[in-house]
Q: What sequence folds into this?
């Protein structure tokens, strides 16, 4: 097992990568024109944000931050279901 200090450096690097990927997703979202591509970008951005929150929670050793990641991931899942029904043109109960 790696020493705790090395684990924290790796986690800090991963957080930097998540921030960089979120900036790329945000840029693509601002310049994208098609709705299905925008849905995928919002989905990717939301799941990256949830993982970023969990990684930040581990880095700061604060368990209360991780509680916010679960509703965010559930929201992204519900958003996917709603948008897929909307794009198909059907009602949510069908």
A:
């Amino acid at each position: 097992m790696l020493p705790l200090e090395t684990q924290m450096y790796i986690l800090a690097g991963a957080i930097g990568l998540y921030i960089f990927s979120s900036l790329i997703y945000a840029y693509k979202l601002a310049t994208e024109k098609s709705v299905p591509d925008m849905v995928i970008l919002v989905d990717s951005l939301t799941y990256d944000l949830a993982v970023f929150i969990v990684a930040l929670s581990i880095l700061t050793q604060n368990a209360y931050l991780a509680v916010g990641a679960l509703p965010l991931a559930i929201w992204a899942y519900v958003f996917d279901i709603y948008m897929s029904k909307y794009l198909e043109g059907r009602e949510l109960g069908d």
Summary: The chain is about 85% helix and 0% strand. The helical segments are 4-31, 35-60, 63-67, 69-88. Residues 4-31 form the longest helix (28 residues). Residues 33-94 form one domain.
